[in-house]
């Protein structure tokens, strides 16, 4: 590790001021950022620790949505009675992230801001049509995820909370990479007030919606309908863990499992 400045913010306003002053990066759970810094894939000169900022914590029900603070740990989402009652698929997704250490350190906001192409939370946000709230604005999930490790966040902009609309039905199914527990492919399926949404993570360079799967499930929300969809392999990832064709096949398999699990 190299030398850098570490600042601890005690309020959202102070965190924003420190980021503007130092030009550094926000530190949430650190599960991705610190590892990247060790490998010199990220070399910020300053970090602003958000762990003591009260405005970024908590889980609550607001109307037809569950609002989760950006600094809420994965383990807290998994254990939340509010989440279990309103969106059990989100609780189950959080329980399947990484290992116990990662779940007790990693945060919702950190995961979304990092936007790893194989992360689980981006699939939930996109699949549920969530709204990402920041210290400056509200961003719909369809506009938030821009590409590999790329989001709509501006420099110094801080995610404060995420509002997840409560779906009629939803479930998440993933084929985990055995070592990292990231998704080789993960599929989040939801029946929402606006229609069926299907978000895929791990299969391509960034989380994305599958229009072919959404169209099929809009006609028949069944596992058989999902299995019958042939996903195009072009543009999907191909590496030592699996070919593009294999990942394309997994999308249909996992979508079918998610539909069956959605009850």
Structure characterization notes:
The protein has 263 residues and is of the alpha+beta class. The chain has two domains: 5-165, Uridine Diphospho-n-acetylenolpyruvylglucosamine Reductase, domain 3 (2-Layer Sandwich); 169-261, Enolase-like, domain 1, CATH 3.30.390. Helices cover 36% and strands 25% of the residues. It has twelve helices and 14 strands. A five-stranded antiparallel sheet has the order 4-5-10-6-7. Helix 2 links the parallel strand 2 (25-27) and strand 3. It is globular and about 55 Å long. The protein starts with a strand and ends with a helix.
Shape: globular
| Order of neighbouring strands in the sheet with most strands | 4-5-10-6-7
Query: What level of helicity do the residues show?
Result: 25-40%
The count of β-strands is 14
Brief digest:
With 263 residues, the chain is α+β, with helices and mostly antiparallel strands.
Summarize the SSE layout with pairings:
Blueprint: E1 5-8, H1 12-22, E2 25-27, H2 33-38, E3 46-49, E4 59-62, E5 65-69, H3 74-79, H4 81-86, H5 88-95, H6 100-105, H7 108-114, H8 121-128, E6 131-134, E7 138-140, H9 141-144, E8 145-147, E9 150-151, E10 159-165, E11 169-176, E12 183-192, E13 195-201, E14 208-209, H10 211-219, H11 223-227, H12 244-261
Parallel strand pairs: 1-3, 2-3
Antiparallel strand pairs: 4-5, 5-10, 6-7, 6-10, 8-9, 11-12, 12-13, 13-14
């Amino acid at each position: 590790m190299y030398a850098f400045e570490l600042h601890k913010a005690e309020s959202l306003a102070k965190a924003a001021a420190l980021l503007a002053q130092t030009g550094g990066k926000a530190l949430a759970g650190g599960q991705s950022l610190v590892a990247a810094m060790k490998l010199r894939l990220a070399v910020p000169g300053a970090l602003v620790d958000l762990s003591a900022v009260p405005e970024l914590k908590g889980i609550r029900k607001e109307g037809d949505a569950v609002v989760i603070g950006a600094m809420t740990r994965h383990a807290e989402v998994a254990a939340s009675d509010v989440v279990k009652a309103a969106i059990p698929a989100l609780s189950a997704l959080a329980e399947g992230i990484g290992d116990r250490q990662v779940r007790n350190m990693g945060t919702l906001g950190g995961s979304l801001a990092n936007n790893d192409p194989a992360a689980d939370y981006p699939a939930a946000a996109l699949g549920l049509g969530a709204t990402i709230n920041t210290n400056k604005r509200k961003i719909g999930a369809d506009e938030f995820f821009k590409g590999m490790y790329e989001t709509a966040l501006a420099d110094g902009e801080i995610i404060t909370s995420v509002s997840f609309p409560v779906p009629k039905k939803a479930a998440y199914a993933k084929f985990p990479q055995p070592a990292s527990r990231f998704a080789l492919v993960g599929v989040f399926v939801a029946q929402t007030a606006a229609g069926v949404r299907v978000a895929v993570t791990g299969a391509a360079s960034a989380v994305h919606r599958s229009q072919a799967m959404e169209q099929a499930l809009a006609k028949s929300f069944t596992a058989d309908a999902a299995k019958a969809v042939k996903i195009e392999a072009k543009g999907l990832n191909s590496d030592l863990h699996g070919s593009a064709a294999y990942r394309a096949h997994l999308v249909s398999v996992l979508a079918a499992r998610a539909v069956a699990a959605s009850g």
